[in-house]
Amino acid sequence: ILNVEQSPQSLHVQEGDSTNFTCSFPSSNFYALHWYRWETAKSPEALFVMTLNGDEKKKGRISATLNTKEGYSYLYIKGSQPEDSATYLCAFNTDKLIFGTGTRLQVFP
Amino acid sequence: DVKVTQSSRYLVKRTGEKVFLECVQDMDHENMFWYRQDPGLGLRLIYFSYDVKMKEKGDIPEGYSVSREKKERFSLILESASTNQTSMYLCASSLGTSGIMYFGPGTRLLVL
Fold this sequence. Notes:
- By secondary structure, chain A is mainly β.
- In chain A, about 0% of the residues lie in helices and about 55% in strands.
- Chain A contains no helices and eleven strands.
- In chain A, strand 7 and strand 8 (about 70-75) form a beta hairpin.
- Chain A is globular and about 40 Å long.
- Chain B is an all-beta fold.
- Chain B has no helices and eleven strands.
- In chain B, strands 2, 4, 5, 6, 9, 10 and 11 form a seven-stranded mixed β-sheet that branches. A four-stranded antiparallel β-sheet of chain B has the order 1-3-8-7, with no helix packed on it.
- In chain B, strand 5 (about 45-50) and strand 6 (about 55) form a beta hairpin.
- Chain B is globular, with a radius of gyration of 13 Å.
- At the A-B interface, strand 4, strand 5, strand 9 and strand 10 of A face strand 5 and strand 10 of B.
């Protein structure tokens, strides 16, 4: 059974703090790694899809890196804002997407 | 603006009832998926479909069936609802097997 693990499970930070979370996935049969943001009462929305080892993607204050050889991806948020509060999901793509359990981020003003 | 819609946001049903959850996408995507989300567990794949009239079992298909008669519509059916099917159900679609997933708003189902 392929497993995708995310840590930490939850995180509480102050506005302005930078933060990062981890997604670990099997390093074999890699095709792509997805990151999604899921805000309360909304649909999950894609942040990044990463395919190449060493890939780095950035969207505003959020960035992600990928290491396919060791099987991990980091998501960074610089200067967290209350509107960043959400659950961040990663998903490992083989022939289908396998989701992690998510990191629930709360940013306090 | 791409859209995946689900027929209900909240649903309350009784044990033994037949339940239909409908999902419609307007992006002409071949692939459609049904997931359920439970506390402490990741999104778990119930069923998916790569084309009209095609369906594949996901990781937890027991107690569910699906129907895809038209490309834009993918229905999840609970033949005889049970309390352990109380959950949040999310529909998604994608272009290609590794494409970005577009999710619906979810249906929170309570089975009494």
